[in-house]
Design goal:
The protein is an all-beta fold. Strands 2, 4, 5, 6, 9, 10 and 11 form a seven-stranded mixed beta sheet that branches. Strands 1-3-8-7 form a four-stranded antiparallel beta sheet, with no helix packed on it. The radius of gyration is 13 Å and the shape is globular.
Length: 123
Amino acid sequence: QMQLVESGGGLVQAGGSLRLSCAASGRTFSWLVMGWFRQAPGKEREFVAAISGSGGSTYYADFVKGRFTISRDNAKNTVYLQMNILKPEDTAVYYCAARGGAVDTSGAAYAYWGQGTQVTVSS
């Protein structure tokens, strides 16, 4: 029953940057693995990045390595996704998700989801 609310999406030119935020309710945030997923029109949801509860371990999809950075501030119950060198193919709705246990790249493993925030990258 944790609630996740994404923000920070918008329109940006190719090569630009955006920083997404995901604010969570509840008192168990620091116990949870947090992930970012995205879904473009006509495509399936795909894994973007994940971070362990302590923030000590991070994981990235190959297509964002070197461009995106996931981080978290447990005192604020917030996870971030810094997106640099954005490409038109990054255009999608970006979703924040949470789960207990180990990091997982499958969306089916995550119990809690936000409503998403739109990221549009123009060329």
